Amino acid sequence: MKTDIIVIGAGPVGLFTVFEAGILGLNCTLIDNLDKPGGQCAELYPEKPIFDIPGVPYQTGQEHVDALLKQIKPFDYKLHLNQRVEQIEQKNNGWLVTTNAGKQFESLNVFIAAGAGAFEPIKPNINTDISQLEDKQVHYSVKDKKAYEGKKVLVFGGGDSALDWSIELEKIASEVTLIHRRDAFRGAPDTEMKVRDLAAKKKINLLTPHIIKDVELDSLGELGEVILYNSDTKKDITLSADNILFFYGLNKKLGPLLDWGLENNGKKIEVDTECYETNKQGIFAVGDINNYPGKLNLILSGFHETTLAVQKAFKRIYPEERVPFGYTTSNTTIHERLGIKSD
């Protein structure tokens, strides 16, 4: 599959790359290891407030992602989720990108917008191997909340995801139990208050301070009893459930990035601030994944970086042409690409 720009990472900076490319008439293909676009904002901090987006006094992480998706809706882009880029190799004057799903993409330009690296869910530290239950009765994110309708659900965690989904699933599940290792949460205070109010009204079960000790499998290899340990009473309790949701957060790993021959400091990729290109021509690093003197890990910094990088990407595709700069307020070509009707 050929495209003008391959974007590794579908977080805010990756999504904004689609916009900057689109107004120049370029198309993008985005690849992300998660099951939805939005990166950390959608996966870790959907309800976390953001106050430093220019012109937007207040947005939650998910509202910001939704706004970016709406902004790039007019443009031609492809989104490939649940895939991790394993290899980048040179092909002709450009690059061939291969994912762990065996898909290959070819482009003159590759933008690494992977935030702090690839995300992988943190799994419970228990003796029983529950991998055969994953995506069946054990989950690390909610893909379709209808799957929990009428079910007994155990939710583990103390952040926004655990709190938010406990509230949401209470509306459709037969029983929701939220389990956390301490009686304090790190999610939004108003959300925590809602959870505690639901617990006081006996609409959800709130178990603190409890940790998971192990999971038993039944004779069919399906989910059996779940064993918890109460750190106050020093006693075990057992629960039954149809589904378990673990919201322990995500591991951030550079992973294969370190094998691509890109200059890095072990945590971030070094770039030239003229266009945020790496030491490999045609491979750019934008957003939190890059490093340069004065670097700030802010979304708005990533927007600036990818804007300049897209200009260079255009020149690589059309070396004989001038980059078509125009103001979005008045440029008729940009308006046409955005689907805006001129008076």
UniProtKB/TrEMBL annotation:
It catalyses: 2 reduced [2Fe-2S]-[ferredoxin] + NADP(+) + H(+) = 2 oxidized [2Fe-2S]-[ferredoxin] + NADPH. Keywords: FAD, Flavoprotein, NADP, Oxidoreductase. InterPro entries: FAD/NAD-bd_sf, FAD/NAD-binding_dom, Fd--NADP_Rdtase_type_2, Ferredoxin-NADP_redctase_2. Residues 4-292 form the FAD/NAD(P)-binding domain. Its cofactor is FAD. GO terms for molecular function: ferredoxin-NADP+ reductase activity; flavin adenine dinucleotide binding; NADP binding. Homodimer. This is Ferredoxin--NADP reductase.
